[in-house]
Amino acid sequence: MFYRETGQFKTSYTADEAIFPIAQDRWFIFGVIAIAVFVVPFLIDDYGANAVLLPFLAYALAAIGLNILTGYCGQVSLGTGGFMAVGAYSTYKLVTAYPDLNLIVIVILSGLITAAVGVLFGLPSLRIKGFYLAVATLAAQFFLVWMFNKFDWFCNNCATGQITMPTVDMFGLQITGPGADPATRYLFCLGIVAVFALLAKNIVRGRIGREWMAIRDMDIAAEIIGIRPLQAKLSAFAVSSFYVGMAGSLYFGVWLSSAEPGEAFDINQSFLVLFMVIIGGLGSIMGSFLGAAFIVLMPLVLKNFMVDGLNIAVVTAKHVEITLMGVLIIFFLIVEPHGLARLWQIAKEKLRLWPFPH
Amino acid sequence: MDWLFFTEIVISGLMAGVMYSLVALGFVLIFKASGIFNFAQGVLALFAALALYDFLAPEGWFNQLFGFTLPVPLAILATAGVMVIVAWLIERLVLRHLVNQEGIILFMATIGLAYVLEGVGDILFGSDVKPLDIGIPQGAHDYLLDTYGLYIEKLEIFAAATAAVMVAVLAVFFQYTRIGRALRAVADDHQAALSVGISLRTIWVIVWAVAGFVALVAGIMWGSKSGVQFSLSLIALKALPVLILGGFTSVPGAIIGGLIIGVGEKLAEIYIGPFVGGAIENWFAYMLALAFLLFRPQGLFGEKIIERV
Amino acid sequence: MESAAEMSHGKKIGDIVLAVDNISLSFGGVRALSDISFQVREHQVLSIIGPNGAGKSSMLNVINGFYHPQEGLITYRGVTRKQMKPHEAARQGIARTFQNIALFKGMSTLDNIMTGRNTIMKSGLLWQALRIGPALNEELAHRERVEQIIDFLEIEHIRKTPVGKLPYGLQKRVELGRALAAEPSMLLLDEPMAGMNIEEKQDMSRFILDVNNEFGTTIVLIEHDMGVVMDISDHVVVLDYGKKIGDGLPDEVRNNQDVIDAYLGVSHD
User: Fold this and answer.
1) Domain ranges of chain C
2) How many folded domains does chain B comprise?
3) At residue C73, what are phi and psi to the nearest 5 degrees?
4) Does C111 sit within 8 Å of A210, measured CB to CB?
5) Structural domain span for residue B101
6) CATH class of A21-353
7) Which architecture does CATH list for C1-93+184-269?
8) Looking at chain B, which residue has its C-alpha nearest residue A125?
9) pLDDT truncated to tens, each residue of chain A (358 aa)?
10) Which of B:104-133 have CB within 8 Å of A?
């Protein structure tokens, strides 16, 4: 009843190619953005920022990055954790070396450095496909974590390998470091994530995005119609690593403020982001957000339910969480391999018919 | 150059390699027969070892339910039975619903499976380290130590012998039996196999049960060596480079790949390690596999994929 | 010989644009092609026919560089090579369709055909991300061109449908659209009418002839339906067991005893 397209005719290709062609969708998104920008900063507290919103934003960016590589271009990567580490350590070195540099510039530079590393590790992908590529990315994952642990230069000659983000101000507001206001930290991340999500959406619906999807769907045919696999795959690695690097920068710099390579960037992180992409929906920017939200919220919901509600031991709750994660992955793969994004679309389809059943 | 030391390293590496091969064998079986890369193989080994421990230990569920623990041979049999049930459940709840999906979907399903098995294992059996002693001889081999000065663990020799026997049995099974042929058909094309009347479900249960048994053997060996603990499941990650070298579909490849990785790792750690600060065992195997892939994307023994349009 | 063809279809046939000489191709022990030579002339519709397994698809694959022959030479537009590379062939104006449809199943009809324009689209990553100025204009200009192709092939109603969901006949049409989007000078069609009923075949034949007439595209076609072959071809090459057993005008080939023995001896629809 409310969600109908009648009367909405597109009279130009520009209108037809809009990200949200249906007016109701546009209103909904504007509403969400309005709440996110104008309402949340007044309600947010330290817990909300540290437990929910900041990890959500950082992981959403990482999920977009991985989705570009795996969901759009079909190249499986299990090295996301390692690349987030590259972004984090780049941020650390840049901030300690050039403390007056604008934080936004630092985040972008971290992304670019990670992109370069990503291209390097992506070179083998030209000859290697499928599972073999997944294993190659595991090589990157283990190597990078080892490297950051081993060489003191990365953490400015610390004893433990742990890095801590110094206080950084921007326009007079403190964004990182102890004591920073949760609203400022949140808005900073929100701004970066929103802008770069839009850029990502533009890329994937343009020529380069189509090239990636062609490679994913049938790379032989793609080559035969003139797409150069070398360029397409490397560009996917580059853009993906750029996003993952920026995610690592926000993850360490704004959210955690201190990190150890063995824990914060290990293979479990890689799996976590992969799960976000699968559950959220492969090949969907919106899905990256949905998946990140799901994975960030689920442990909290479970913990509140099991530990506080049913008085189960924390350790057991953790085991249940692991089991449930696995069950959900399998469930989604069986029922809806295209994830929450597809379920969202189906819900909208049903909404168009509402209140009629069919 | 201390040749004695070198030989010890090489043999130690070979032994470690055999242990890797045992895990890799399970992967190859499942991949060969169902086209699935089973990321949960390592966790299966852990789960099998946990179940075995439970049958043997006074504080296990079995003793609490029935009042006695099993002698070693019966316990192993019982665990094999448990693995068959697990295989049946996996087929029923997971595989059946994913027929003819792409490889990547199946792979990710096995990652989910690994998490499930790990979580359930932890809930049922607890996550503390458990010693596993089923009577495999421990300690150094006396004859070799006294005569040649070589320190080689008896356990590792036992593992090598077991692996050799298993490989021989599996090779015969695949090549010469009707079921083996059906397994290979299923690996090629699920739907085609269905259309010639091969019962996909039965085949899958059989394969996963056999893989479960292989996992059990691997779990016994590793568990006896370093206790049954969570890190056992991480062995699966080590098996991946083995498979890359040996090819995903080759049983001899899994063995040889394992040996190469085992020796390579040890040698690298001893001779290259000191120059870069040590602990390169973490990633050396992967780098070796990666280097290999660049020259031979299908591994040493894997089948060359010819793309048809 | 040529003047008879010019007369019968009323169009001008040009010079030799593609020549294959002594092409031999083997896979391991299997010999797919033995010493094949023929020429294709500009604006011509040339059909390759022969029983199953004769090597027809392999021949097309050699022409656009997917298979590399062990012996022989390919001369395209005056340049002689021992083998082509697929994306080079594409960028030189050769487009093709496939026997078992090679569409990008995850994308819509519109996106699939837009992908065909890739060799012509130029804008860089940064402009694409911002989607303003040159990138946006380029995208819209190509969208317009693609819409013209969609009109031509009468597939407007399925432009946003993921191609994986389309019936076989429509998928074949979309694939033709994708090949046309590259504005090729030579079109290789591998059994474009396989599995179609009479109406669909008529439609497809019409499309192919329209492309040939309006844009002057050279067409090399593999087809089993003899009625279609005889109707629309200017020239026919016959393969059997990897060897060439016929090469000439449709009527000549129809009356060639070797060809009849190998292929046309059975009754057909």
Assistant:
1) 1-93+184-269, 103-181
2) 1
3) -130, 150
4) yes
5) 3-295
6) mainly alpha
7) 3-Layer(aba) Sandwich (3.40)
8) B294
9) 666 777 777 777 777 777 877 777 788 888 888 888 888 888 888 887 888 999 999 999 999 999 999 999 988 898 999 999 999 999 999 988 888 888 899 999 999 999 999 998 888 777 777 777 787 788 889 889 888 888 877 877 776 778 888 888 777 777 777 777 888 888 899 999 999 999 999 999 888 999 999 998 888 888 888 888 888 899 999 999 999 999 999 999 888 888 887 788 988 899 899 989 988 988 889 999 999 999 999 888 877 777 776 777 777 777 888 888 889 888 888 888 788 888 888 888 888 777 777 7
10) 104-105, 107-109, 111-120, 122-123, 127
Residues 59-98 in B contacting A (C-alpha not used; CB under 8 Å) = 93-94, 97-98
C187 interfacial to chain A (CB closer than 8 Å): no
Alpha-carbon gap: B308 to the closest alpha carbon of chain C (Å): 10
Q: Do A320 and B123 touch (CB under 8 A)?
A: yes
Yes or no, beta carbons of A207 and C123 under 8 Å apart:
yes
Show which subunits contact A, needing at least 3 CB pairs below 8 angstroms.
B, C
Pick A214's closest partner by Cβ from C98, C115, C119: C115
CATH number at residue B232: 1.10.3470
* B308 belongs to a structural domain: no
Measured between CB atoms, which of B116, B244, B282 is closest to A146? B282
User: ipTM for the complex?
Assistant: 0.82
Q: In whole angstroms, give the CA distance from residue B234 to residue A127.
A: 27
* Residue B261 resides in a domain: yes
